[in-house]
Amino acid sequence: MLNELEVAIFSYNRGKYLKNCIESVVENLPSVKITIFDDHSDDQETIEYLSSLGDSVVVGNDDSDSRHGNLYRNMQLALEQSSKRFLLLLQDDTQVVRRVDEQDMHAIGTIFSDPDIAFLRPQFMKLGDGERNVSLLAASSEVRAYIPKLEFEEGTFGHSYCDVVLCDVPKLKKVAWKFLEGERANQIQAHGIFKYMPFMADSFIFYCPEVPCYRNKKLFLASRIVQNKLQGKLSRFMALSEEENANFIKRDINIWPIAETFLETNNKDVVKPFVYQDYNKSLLLQNIYRLERGVYKVERLLKKDRG
Question: Domain 1-307, what fold?
Fold first, then answer.
């Protein structure tokens, strides 16, 4: 069933992370088609890497003023171009952390056999969300997934959709799905059309820790401070070994797939619990980011008023 899967990766100005993401897909999802949707990167390292990828790169229109750039337009383009049953939507700061085989694809097909499920969350869980997840989700050994307990009640939109997600393409095309601007808007939309989004028990995706974070295609000072200190070093996860992978997928489903439990990084300086925007490494960096972000918002408002 791997031949029923394709991968779309959304990229902007993080060339070494994009390379890491692609290499992880090639290693762990062998022979799966990969398409990169770039949001008009202007970083030279990223441009050079993209140029080496040939026809697998798609560059869409560059006419969005959203804080997310053209991410959701590119996601829509990926869906419209998809010719497979399953479409995995990744961002350049994510990584496939273990080998996926036909047994995994069979489990995915079993979950999607429910006609009201169109989205499946393939990520490991964050340690900080563990207690909340246990209270809101129920382990289902029948489909090897975690199912929301209160899936239709107000306030559980987050269990309907997420931006890094595995999609059932025919179901989305059948309802003429259109990606809206922002994750929350898509959660609300999905909540009104489909049932819940299960969490895969045997996760295979996670977010690289401490990556540079762009807002409105701008890299703020706090991120530049961290990246200058790293001097180009990328923090990534070590792929599970064959033995670790086998033990992971045969574990009791009541052992939740917490990233900090199962994943190790190549960088001993990465903080735990993991943080995903580099400026969240310290309170000082967070405050620098918030200050510059506030100034930037004021400048944009003033510019808009003058226009």
Answer: Spore Coat Polysaccharide Biosynthesis Protein SpsA; Chain A (3.90.550)
User: What CA–CA distances, in Å, run from 168 to 5, 60, 179, 215?
Assistant: 10, 23, 14, 29
* Extended strands (E) in the chain: 5-11, 33-38, 57-59, 86-91, 94-96, 119-120, 137-140, 145-148, 165-168, 199-200, 205-207, 214-215, 218-219
pTM: 0.86
How does the average pLDDT of the chain come out, rounded?
89
Q: How far apart are CA 173 and CA 193, in angstroms?
A: 12
Count the residues in the chain: 307
Overall average pLDDT of the 215-241 stretch: 81
Q: What single-letter DSSP state applies at residue 2? A: G
Paired residues of 94 in beta bridges: 207
Residue ranges of alpha helices (H) inside 162-210 are 169-174, 183-193
